[in-house]
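<instruction>
Derive structure tokens from the sequence

<record> Sequence and structure tokens follow
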Amino acid sequence: MIRGYIDERIYEYPEDPDDIINRLQKIPEQEMLKTTKSLIAPWPNTYTFTKNLAERALQKHRGNFPILVLRPAIIICAY
């Protein structure tokens, strides 16, 4: 798990984002709920996991277009 200062960059991961999505789509919902922590490792929560997955998928499929990822300074809950 990454702790402390986090650079504003897209963190690499050895598994391809498309492969991860394809694998997750084949897992039954109940199994996914039981094994979430192991499925999202090394990220601490589903928010950071899906954020990284989306950023890497965007980077992979962007073609020749430059991309800019804007990250909000704070995330809060909504009722």
Residues 17-61 form one domain.
